[in-house]
Amino acid sequence: MSQDQQTPQEALASIRATRASVAPAMRYPVAYDLAYGAVCGLLVAGQGMPQPWSLLVLPVALGGLAIMVMWWRRKFGWWVSGYSPKRARWAAFGLLAVFLCLIGLSLYGRFVGPWWLFMVSGALGFIAAIVGSRVWLAVWRRELAETVE
Prior knowledge:
Blueprint: H1 8-25, H2 30-46, H3 53-76, H4 88-111, H5 117-148
């Protein structure tokens, strides 16, 4: 506790007020969604790309994710892992399942054909990332609001 010694009730009220104000006040640019979609699309498509592109795309996409996390922390001062909120993590697991299927599709195109299937799976990964991100955010906001009450 701080020097001004809050009572437990005051501390709880402060926590509730902060939680209630965080999720609704959080606005971020559509460019963040587009960047996240592009990075995830690259991660999916990269698995089906011919060599050496397959090896080059992975560090670029992972670096893009790292830059996005750093930007978020600088802008908002915090970061929430997609898997930590109890209810919202299921949206993240659902998105992971979609990505695994799309990576499988991308690999199928690489080893069986057609060769251009990685472009289709990457485009679908781009769309899935944006939709999945917004679904996760809606579930997280609802979860955060319910725990305040």
